[in-house]
Amino acid sequence: MKKRDNAIKDITELRKLESILSECKVCRVGMVDFDDPYVLAMNFGYEDQTVWLHCAKEGKKVEILKRNNKVCLEFDTDHKLFSRHEHVACSWRMAYRSVLIRGNALFVDDYEEKLKGLNIFMKNYSDRDFEYSKPSVDNILIIKVPIESITGRSFEY
Questions:
Q1: What are the phi and psi torsion angles at 6 (to 5°)?
Q2: Most-buried pick from 68, 85, 127, 142 (CB within 10 A)?
Q3: Looking at residue 82, what is its pLDDT?
Q4: Separation between Cα atoms, residue 95 and residue 9, nearest integer Å
Q5: Minimal CA–CA distance to 46: which of 123, 115, 99, 107?
Q6: How far is Cα 62 from Cα 65, in angstroms, rounded to an integer?
Q7: Could you tell me whether strands 92-104 and 140-155 are parallel, antiparallel, or unpaired per DSSP bridges?
Q8: Which of 109, 107, 106, 140 is nearest to 122 (CA)?
């Protein structure tokens, strides 16, 4: 068996995992459509070991999640391309820090909880406070993913 690269480090401390999440602006949401993998990049919010997403009330991802709500969310940041030997292609690498979250996607119907989710979501992109019109809130789907498992990894950090 090949030895693991010493540059790869597992991250297990929640505070460090949350620090990585705080630097990310996009996550990738992995789902399974019957036996076909499906992955989308989405904006998100994070608070209290829960990831918040929003989308239209209809579409492929909604249909998939109605059938199978298990998801795997991937976050990555701090990308740096470098080489150990500039003229050797296989020595070029990408440093990064990443987090994987597994859980069940839950559709939020309660209006007040939808507002809570939107506020958490917007905190990831702005320090402002926002107001939402009732028709706008009613016309979107809020999805929350309580964390069942969280792991992290860094490469060359």
A1: -65, -15
A2: 142
A3: 86
A4: 11
A5: 123
A6: 5
A7: antiparallel
A8: 140
Q: What residues does each domain of the chain span?
A: 8-155
Tokens in use for 152? 């992290």
**Nearest Cα residue to 78 out of 137, 156, 13:** 156
Nearest-angstrom CA–CA distance, 66 and 62: 6
Question: pLDDT at residue 4 above 70?
Answer: no
Nearest of 41, 46, 58, 54 to residue 114 by alpha carbon = 54
Residue 143 contacts residue 105 (beta carbons within 8 Å): yes
Give CATH for domain 8-155: 2.30.110.10
The pLDDT assigned to 100 comes to 98
Token pair, residue 22, equals 């705080």
